[in-house]
Amino acid sequence: MESGSDRILKFIEKDFRAEQIVRAFDLLNKTDIMTGAAFLIGVPTETEEDIWKTIDLAKRINAYHTHFYPYTPFPGSPLAEYCRKNGLIRYPERLEDWADFEYARSDRTAISEREIKKISAQFEVRNVLNSLQRGELAILSNFLNLEQFQNFRSWTNFFRQAFRTGRGIWSSARSAEKPIL
Which domain does 132 fall in, by range? Predict the structure, then answer.
């Protein structure tokens, strides 16, 4: 998918548009196929409006698993060249400097890193709930390291942490200006 904004989809040279994605997922969601969707945040020229279109699309398609990733301008790609030419990124000149180079940086996005993490966390909770609802422990293991749960102490720590995480997500969702889910 990568974006819910037709402008961004065109900019990154995708041969489909948001409504085509919706129609495809409408058909897929009528089957037993477990769908997945991956979206990028921080694509060059992306505005806050584009990001909200992406979030809205993610909700509309109701994929079984949804993930958000920061855009990464890999050297040699057309978008990385766009970033370089427009001063959005500067590649290291010395080999040693590549060790500290950060491909994905939150200062390139129209919303804060905190907002991106909040969005991602809420969709991750939705992913886990979808797995639990279908009783698919194997898929749930993608999100959790099940080897940690070999003893009771690990289980109690897991539920304590899950409660804290859920409480944190709930309170941040209530305080958000615009509800995400």
Answer: 112-181
